[in-house]
Amino acid sequence: MELCLFQLLTNSVIILLVIIVSLPDASKVATSISNLWPSGTYGLPRSMLGCPQSHDFEWKTGWRYQDTEDSYPNNRYSNISFHMDTMIWKNNLNKTFCIKGKNISEEKGGAWPKGQFCIYKKGDCPKQLSEGFIYWDDEDSNNRNSIEGTLPDGIYNHDTKIFFCCRTDGNKSDPIILPVNKPFYLLAYGSSECQQVKGALVTEEFIQYDTEDDSSNKDAWGGTHPNVSHEVPGSSTLVITYCYYDSKS
Ligand SMILES: [Ca+2]
Ligand SMILES: [Ca+2]
Ligand SMILES: [Ca+2]
Ligand SMILES: [Ca+2]
């Protein structure tokens, strides 16, 4: 009888241990719903509410004033929904960026998750993201392009060439995990459809850029770049899709 009781107790202890060991580690769970931005250096469009949150790094900001077409100018944006920290006039625009530098402590953010989206390039593209660019042929006459602060990698003279890093190997409808406690932007890749993000409502927004009307318009894009198209085939007007993410709660 005593032996039986001992056996019972021993079994109970073993079962309890098995349960404890198989319970998820609280710290691991916390990491998997991370509030950390992926490692590396890169940029995002800045929302009207500022840069996304950060822990062990600071977002630097900068802006690019783009002097776009002056003749019958037609810059536009998605006025039903638009949250970018950007001034858009018919003939010019000024957009701002959030640029992530290196983490202050060891990099803990991990890799960008598998998906289909683009971000601005700053230094080397993060792992698994490939590089591309968009070139805007800005106004040729009396061009007043200007810059200030920290910008994505690019060429900022009388025209604008900006480099991007895109991840292309996932499925847009499989939500990826990113910090959603402050709104942020990604750029759409491949089509105007946006990547889904866990816990966030996503809105497709756009900017239509009226680039130089001259017949020698030099608008171009290459490599792995965000979704961009002419407003009308062959027109000197570019449309780019921006994805705005806001927490569901
Ligand atoms: Ca202009
Ligand atoms: Ca030009
Ligand atoms: Ca012009
Ligand atoms: Ca044009």
TrEMBL record:
Keyword tags: Signal
InterPro entries per record: ApeC (IPR031569)
UniProt superkingdom: Eukaryota
Residue ranges constituting the Apextrin C-terminal domain according to the UniProt record: 37-245
Signal peptide: 1-26
Keyword rRNA-binding: no
Record protein name field: Apextrin C-terminal domain-containing protein
Organism: Desmophyllum pertusum
